[in-house]
Amino acid sequence: MRTTSLRLRVVAAVLAMLTIVLVAVGILINLVLGGQLRADLQQWLIDRAGYAQILAEQGLEAQSLANRLTGDDVTVTYSVGGDTVYGRADPTPGADRGPGMPPHAESVPGAVVTQSGDRLSVTQTVAGGTLTLSSSEAGIDAVLVQLRTIEVVAGLLTIVVTWLLLTGVVGVALRPLTRMTSRTSCAPPPPVYRPARRPCCVTTRLAPSGKASRLAQVATNLLGNARNATEVGGSIRTDLAVVDGAVQLTVSDSGAGVPEADRERIFERFVRLDPSRASNRGGSGLGLSIARALARAHGGTLECLGPIATPGALAGARFALTLPRAD
Predict the structure, then answer these.
(1) Any keyword Kinase (predicted)?
(2) What stretches of the chain adopt beta strand conformation (E)?
(3) If you ran DSSP here, which 8-state letter would residue 309 be given?
(4) Does some domain include residue 95?
(5) Which pLDDT band holds residue 66 (cuts at 50, 70, 90)?
(6) How far apart are CA 40 and CA 46, in angstroms?
(7) Under 8 Å CB-to-CB from 301, ≥6 apart: which residues?
(8) Is the residue at 193 inside a domain?
(9) How far is CA 172 from the centre of its chain?
């Protein structure tokens, strides 16, 4: 039976929503973490400028002050008295660069923060001179790249694990429905009692092979669908003939018909071309799917055909049930 798997549709929908959530959470984490790291770097430079004020008050000369503040990816420029000195980190391993920034060092007002490319700079007036500390944000970008890599790998693993679990869970949940449709043990709807507008002729010698109750279920389903599709005052026509050595029952109506693009899809499970009509009359979308399965189980076919342009033909839907003749 050619049907769209309900299990695959459920799993695909859940995985799509999970992917959207993971992407949104990843973007949010990157934005929040990146902003916090840049704010921490800015505050660290401002605090370091405040520490420079303490060193200047201790009488440290300009070059020594600049050298003391240089390092840890921080470059220092100190302009005082018309001279500009540049901080140099001591390359000697284990060299004593003096004590680090004391915990009581506080930022002083007047610090100016500027951004140039990936470098963040803080300018502060210290002891009558201008002190500029700058640091690159490349380290922050590297951390964010590593974080995104971890998020992508973790997200893919999450999607794969979820897919495996969902496939099993949905399969178990739909198992009763699968058994029901495979057995095609649905009770036929009540017979249709409506006076025909014109007499019909039935030849009893055209007896198809198969179990009578199952074939009656197929015919009843086709007649019930025709009744639902036909408005008051409309017509339903049944024709029985031998076509290429097989018995063919054709049920046509004067309703709206079935578009050509939907004539195969209408046999899929849970497909209802008119949801409003189906909900009003209790349709489940399984009738035609089960009817085709019964026809194939008896070696026949069930098709939805287009209307024929012959005198007396109805312009609505036309279903043809073809079965092998009894020997």
Answers:
(1) yes
(2) 74-80, 83-86, 112-116, 119-126, 129-136, 236-243, 246-253, 301-305, 318-324
(3) -
(4) no
(5) confident
(6) 10
(7) 292, 295, 320, 321, 322
(8) yes
(9) 22
Model confidence at 258: pLDDT above 70: yes
Residue with tokens 């007047």: 110
Taking a C-beta distance cutoff of 8 angstroms, is the pair 10, 157 a contact? no
**Contacts (Cβ under 8 Å, ≥6 apart) of 214:** 184, 294, 297, 298
Count each helix (H run) and each strand (E run) in the chain, helices first: 7, 9
Q: Which residues contact 3 (CB under 8 A, 6 or more apart)?
A: 267, 268, 269, 289
Question: Is the CB of residue 186 less than 8 Å from the CB of residue 294?
Answer: no
- 159 and 240 co-located in one domain: no
Residue 142 placed within a domain:
yes
**Final residue before a domain boundary, out of 173, 203, 231:** 173
For residues 190 and 162, state if they share a domain: no
Output the DSSP codes for 235-296: -EEEEEEEETTEEEEEEEESSS---GGGTTGGGSTT--S-HHHHHHHT--S-HHHHHHHHHH
Tell me if 94 is assigned to some domain.
no
Full domain range(s) for residue 293? 183-324
Please check whether residues 75 and 208 belong to one and the same domain. no
Q: 135 with 256, same domain?
A: no
pTM over 0.70: no
**pLDDT confidence bin for 185, thresholds 50/70/90:** very low
209 and 277 both lie in a single domain? yes
Specify the DSSP class assigned to residue 71.
B
Residue 293 identity: A
Q: What is the mean pLDDT of residues 58-63?
A: 79
Per-residue pLDDT band for 197 (boundaries 50, 70, 90) equals low
pLDDT digits (tens, 9 = 90+) for 87-96: 776 654 444 4
Q: Are the C-beta atoms of residues 69 and 52 closer than 8 Å to each other?
A: yes
